[in-house]
Every structure is written in C-alpha cells, then in structure tokens.
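User: I'll paste a sequence; please echo it back and then give the predicted structure.

Assistant: Echoing your sequence first, then the prediction.
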Amino acid sequence: MKKRLENDVAVITGAARGLDRAIALEFARHGCHVCCCDINLEGAQETAQAIADEGGSAEAVYMDVSSSACVNEAMRGIFERCGRITILVNGAFWSTADDLDHLSDEDWNRALQINLTGYFYTLRAVHPYMKQSGGGRIVQLSSTSGKSGGSIGSGAHYVSTKAGIIGLTKYVANHWYGDKIRCNTICPGATDSPVLHSPGVDQELVAKVEKTIPLGRLCYPEDIAKGALFLASDESAYITGITLDICGGRYMYGN
C-alpha cells in the first residue's frame, strides 16, 4: 500500500475518541507521525498506543483548546520535538442536546469557546510553524448540522459553532494560500460514534434518520477518516476552501 503522508507531522485535536481517533489511526497507517492532542490525556495516550500497536508513530499531547496559552505551549513543544508541523486536523468539540429555550448562558459560552474559539487558537498557533515547514494542509471538522440547521441532538450552540467553522475555513483558505497552506472542511452526517449513543440522544430519532439516508446506513468514523486523508494528501493539491459533505447522500441540493 502506498503511504500518502510519509514525512508528515499531524496535529489532531480531540484525538482521544470518535472521529478524531479514527483520523489519527488512518493518518498513521499512511506514514504520518501523529500528535494526538486532547484535554483527556489518558484517552489521547490510548490512541497513541493503538497507533504504536499497529507499527505507527505517535505521541500523546495534553491540549486544552479553550486555553490560548495551553494551545500555544503545546504547539511550540510539538514543533521543537518534531522539527515540522505539516497537517492540522481541528476536531475537538463540546455540546449538549438542549434546545435554544433551555440553553444556559454557560453552555452557550462553553460551546463557543471550545468549538469555535478553540479552532481560532489552534489556527493562530500553528500558522508560523506551518510557514517554517514550507506549507501545510488543514482539515476542520464541522457538521451537516451547520448547513441544515440541525437534527439529532443538535442544539443552537452546536449548530452555530459548526456553521462558524465553515466560514473560518474559507477565511484561512483565502488568506493563507501565499504560505502554501490549504484549508478545507468536512461536514459529517449522523455518525455511529460514542456521541450518537450518549445520554439525551433520542435513539428512535436516530433510527428514523438512518432510514432517510440514500446509502442506507449511518456514517462510520472510518468514512470521515478516509475523507480527511484525501484532503490532507497531495491528491487534493488543487482543492482549498471547500466543504465536503460525508453523509451518505442525505443532504443534496433540491432535497
């Protein structure tokens, strides 16, 4: 198998579980050294160990994306140890299933701080290191909820921050191209991950949504990982600023 990310160093936030763990594993299989970043250091270590068990290269890094100082320090340490940072996957997020009428100020602000401001912190911190590395590729995880208005367990705070990520991606793509940095967004549909099975998520609604998906099943984390691999590899060298929907065809223009 051709390794598509040899000599790359990737920073992946939220890598302790779910989609970001799947992306970390997929990148490592293609020769990338993966920095598994998360506030849940134990979970990040488990991801790094899973990569090592497959013969890949990885390290676990404590990163609280809601803290600018923490992000700056973690990114500096990664660059000093690895000598380059060529890929960033922004995937860390937090949310609840509360609707707008019952959403507290605290939960609204926490979602903004982690899901959107956290992306800003990591982008700002990684930029100089990507420039020194000769360029880079950025993949940001949004959601189809950021385009559709939400469905399963999608509160106003989640929908709003995921929509904001799409705009932030376009800004970076439009302003950092001169530094040989590409930036794209993935919008996953309903994904069979721990989040979908968490308390407060209506499983009957999940089953109903699954029946509306043209390809006949929920998204798997591996589906997102393969899309991220494409956007992080040279195979997408002429693609920047796009939003890639990976949702089994559930969202189409005109539907």
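Residues 144 and 251 are 8 Å apart (CA to CA). The two ends are 38 Å apart (CA to CA).
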